[in-house]
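Problem 3 from the worked examples.
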Amino acid sequence: MEYYPYDSRKALYRSPYGAVKENEKVLIRALLHGDACVHSAFLRMSNDGDGVVHEIELTPREWLEGYRFYDAEITLPEGLYWYDFRYTSDYGQFFVVKERGGRGIVSESDGAKWQITVYDASFKTPDWLKGGIIYQIFPDRFFASSAEKQNVPNDRYICGDWKTQPEYRQNGEKRRLGNDYYGGDLKGIEEKLPYLKELGVSCIYLNPVFEAHSNHRYNTADYMKIDPLLGSEEDLRSLCKAAKKQGIRIMLDGVFSHTGDDSVYFNRYGRYGDGGAYNDYGSPYREWYKFNRFPDDYSAWWGVPSLPETNEDNESFSRFITGEDGVIRRWLRTGVSGWRLDVADELPDCFLDRVRNAVKSENKDAVLLGEVWEDASNKISYGARRRFLRGRQLDSVMNYVFANAIIDFVRDSDAQKLGETVETLLENYPEEAVHLLMNHIGTHDTARALTVLGRRDGYIGDREWQSQTRLSSEELETGLKRLKVAAVLQYTLPGVPSLFYGDEAGVEGFLDPFCRRTYPWGEENADLLGFYRELGKVRRKGKAFIDGEFNLCLASGDLFAFTRISEDAMAYIAVNRGENPATVTLLPEFEGKTRTFGTEIQNGVLNLPPYGYSVVTK
């Protein structure tokens, strides 16, 4: 058998695996060959906060086929840590450093290190979302009820044709980018709850619903009011109540890093009277913003003047969002079950701490997810290492890391790369956060998954080009096959799949605004919709998908296979993203299976066709 001096992903070398609770005992063992003539071996560890390397001498232990173990048992306070090994021998000083995956190699010099995430021992995430399915809705484009819209500003363009393409030009007079509305509303979502129930949905994530003067509503005008085109506070309460009867919760989008310039707080254009930070130097809202020179020179989100940045460190603003009667708690009291934080990595730690406190104080069972596009366990933003997932801030994050890896694999990347991405994230994230990872493959900020997977060259031109380009019949056929493979992975990997409205119906579209088309009611791709309904049933009935441990079985070329195993259930998942048939031998413990989705078992073998998949649950 081949041994490595260290492998963080094997119990032989380290126990427990992955992120650990503060003050939990961790056994770390190096395995060095007798021919190395080792004198002393040391574990070298540093706290990310100070970077000081502390050496712990390892104790020599038993032998294994010519190798000897050297180990230490440690406990650590909450934080992020890095470690490697050093040993002295007859031949001098050597290091054991991280090579690829969790494996280590002997080196004559210092090198890459392993990570340990240590989180708050009390960290617990809501159980109701584990094993569920999230459905993301861009409210204006999902479904329009017949409810009369009241108090709608007259400077909005209301599209009379539900099927027309969103406007992409910014130079229009009445109809322009961001100013065309289709009338989707909260009552419309409520009417479609039975449809969402059929998909197995357990949580609806709504893009912003508060009053704002663009159809995306990320330029908040009033945090205390529902946008009039969407309905009223009573409509939101009604939606939450009706959804709960169907076993579905509602999660809102919290946009707190900036507001709109056309808002009651900034009020650049005087829509809200004479006050506001822009018009009145003495306004109580002025300190909410970052003026370099009053009133025209101010910090704006990514330099966009219509999105003035808020000063989250300001006590008045922070209290307005997180206080006893603040935005967070007020809307949780309407029946909402959680928040997704827009650009969470652009919010300061002290503000995130207060947001979590507000959410959990109001309802300990409410969920708090954040938008972070990279590995959230070790991300650096604004010059500081962040602590999103150590138990005192977010419950979990939008999983762009998985999304990108799945899309890349299904298009043209090697299976080993996908496997490495998945195992790295599972090693770095606390288990509680893993169970709630928001596993999407497309959102309002990305091109539609079907379009990305169908396009062979990957080229995306300007908005004019995007407005005129559709998948060819050949590209559409390829995209649909690839989308099913991607969806199987999305629904079965650790975390919670998040389905962007319309993906299940075959909606195409490049980047904003084309990814935000209306849902094609009555014109869905029936085969694809049926596929998603059946996949949803497999997901919701498979207990292993709630908290089952991930074990990678095969990652080679076009083939990717893994198991999910919990105390009382297990599942085996295999996909073939290639254009040729492939055979995968099923593990013996899955004989006597109870359910298969996709390719059936034949004599202990899965004969996967091109773009084939199989989910075996037991």
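Problem 4, a separate protein:
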Amino acid sequence: MTKRATLPYYSPLVLLSLLLTSAGSVGCMSFLGHPSPEETTLKELANESPDLVTKFTHPYGLSYVKIEAISMVTGLKGTGEDPPPTPQRASLLAEMKRRQVKNPNDILASLDTSLVLVRGVLRPGIQEGDRFDIEVRVPTRSEATSLRGGWLLPARLTELAVLGQQIRRGHVLGQAEGAILVDPHAQGKEGEPYATRGRILGGGIATQSRSLGLVIDDRYKSVRLSQQIAKSVNNRFYVRADGRRAGVATAKTDEFIELVVHARYKDNVARFMRVARSIAVGETARQRQTRIVMLGEQILDPLTTASAALQLEALGDDQAKEHLQQALQSSDTEVRFYAAEALAYLDDTSAVETLAEMASDQPAFRVNAMVALSAMDDLEAFDSLRQLLSANSAETRYGAFRSLGAMNRHDPLVAGEDMGGMFSFHQLDVTGPPMIHLTNSHRPEIVLFGEQPSLKLPVLIDAGGGILINGMQGRTLTVSRFSNRGEAEQRTIPPNVDDMIRTIVDLGGTYPDVVQALQEAKQQGALLSRLRVDALPQPGRKFHRDPANPTEEESDNGFEVATPLPDLFKRRT
């Protein structure tokens, strides 16, 4: 007979003791055999993360809308044309009759006028009354030879389409008028293609505000989700309306949530949209805590740092700031930049030093760094931009100037003078090499950096608009403006840029006339200081992770900035 094996008898207390000892011996295994929280991996944390707004929606209103008109330019001094019978001429005649212009065909026949095509681009989030640049050009095969000195008559801009050999218009979305800036170097037959097109800086005014929002994908469409997304966004962002706090998101329908851009993102609408779509929907306190831990790891990895920074910015609380501040200590340039950029939009002073360094020394990050600094309500951010006004790089200096204007246009440092409503004139008492900056986009302005520049004599300058600057004799300049009758109004001034600009305006000259005078002076060698036009920080540059010793492959295949190009440094047409 086989003997049965027997187990020793243990009392219940002994069994409990053995069980506890066994549990302790496995260390990081829980009572039920699952991993402890200390061994939870990033992958497992990610699986526990809530859904973000980006899963359910796509952005609405981030496209650029082209609007056009057909109008007339006057004051061309014989360089215009009598336009042939085309749909454009018929459209212009209809507009002239609507405005009750007498003898419209006689006016069109004058060589001092020209039919022109007018175009503007409405940026995302533009509001009623905001200004934008205008592009003006003559039609193809036009006999007009130059738009120099011309003035665009009031034009109503709409979205246009040609249907059935007729030009069809949409709603009026903008109005345009003003003096046309033509390339001063466009001369003779070779320059005609450039002389017959020009720009009016800030010459357009939006007549309607453009809506921004989130569109819920069809598979998720519901009133409940729309309201839940709006609530999640409003928990993060709000504005002040009539002294009261109001959320930026409004659930309009089961598929559309309208957004109001938070003031801190006014010059970076695309970033605001990305941050809004990085907000979690219906996140519990436990999920939020778990996600912060995961993002704290991801922010330190160059491959995930950009998206992690956006999510931490979207969280916006003290814990998120702590992880971003820790990332500022990283030895990796990309990690420090993306962390500092997110902190700037959270108005955290710790971002300033890193962003100022990037703006000065890292061209690939310069655009985003400057705009991030301009978004802050921080004295240190202001001071860092002010110091960049004295840099050697022209684009760094002007980029800092424009950023300071975005921070506070009325600050005495950058406010400047209004020159007859045509342009603004700024003289900056800063160190660094003297420089004059002119704009060909955004808004008409002239900025003098540093010491007052003088003009080297002798010199003879044709400023356009019937204005002649004569410095061929003596130590002064004679500025004359000739009328159609040949009569001249004259001023005698010292040979310096400040007096020349003011005198041109005093004699009725426009911004294009001043630009032409300065560029002519530079071309003749009479202007010894640097003269730059639209020296904007350039987007699209690549960051090389080993700039001291880049390989050929690295030089061609660097890493571009992952966050959107801010509106502040985009050309408006």
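Solution to problem 4. The first strand starts at residue 57 and ends at 60. The mean pLDDT is 86.
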